[in-house]
Please model this.
Amino acid sequence: MKRWFTVFTLVAATGLSTHAATITYFSASLSQDHVVKGGIAGTAATGRGTATFVLTQPDVGEPTLRYDIGLVGADLDGAQTPNMPADNVTGIHLHNTAVCIAPGCQVGDTGGTMHVLNLFGFPRADDGDMTYDAAASTVSGLWDASDKNALTPLPSGKPSEFLTELFNGKLFLMVHTQGVPTGAYGGFLTRVPEPAGLALLLTGVCWLLIRRRQGGTAITFCHEASVRNSRGVVQAPKW
Ligand SMILES: [Ca+2]
Ligand SMILES: [Ca+2]
Ligand SMILES: [Cu+2]
Model:
C-alpha cells in the first residue's frame, strides 16, 4: 500500500512579508583590475574585497538596497596600519558607469563616473544607516530614498532612479584610497541567485510530500511554490 501525505507548511511571518516585496541579490568582487580610467585598466592598489547586496522592491513604496562590504588590505580609520598611509580608505561610493563626470573620462571607464550613493568618507556619508568596523574591515548600510540629496559636490540619489542601471550591470562599487584617490579598487554589481538558506525562508510556501513505503522508508522532497522573488527558481548558493 502506498499512501501520500501532503503537508502544507507555511513559514508564516517571513512568507507574509515577502509576498509584499520582490527580492533580488547582487554581489561585487572588488579588485584593482576592474578600475578603468581614461580607457586604461588597473591601479597600483593592493586592497581588495567582496560585497553583497539585497534589493527589496515592495509592492507599494520605494525600493531599498542593503549592502555588506568586506575589505582585505584596507584601513578604514587610518589606525589599522598607521605606518602605511596608502591603504587608508578615503571614500566608498556607488558609481553609475553609464555617465562620465570627470575630465578625460570615456565610455567603458569605471573611475571618473557619476556617484549615485556616497556611503563612506569623501565627500560625505550620505547613508545614515551606514556603519563600519575598522578592525573587521566591514562596511554595511541601507541605500533608501531618504539618502537622496542635492548637496555639492556629488549629490547622492535614491535606488528607484537607478534600477535600470543596476539590472543592466552599470553600477560599480568604488573604493578610493590615499594611495589611489581617483579610485583604487572596485567591482560591478552583478545579479546572483539567492543563498539557499535564505531562499527557503523567503519562499514562503513549501509543500512537503512524504511518501511512505511498506518498508518504512520515507522519501521527502520539497517543492518551492508561490515564489514571488525575482528568479522563481531556487538554485544552489554561489556566494
Ligand atoms: Ca594605514
Ligand atoms: Ca539609508
Ligand atoms: Cu567614487
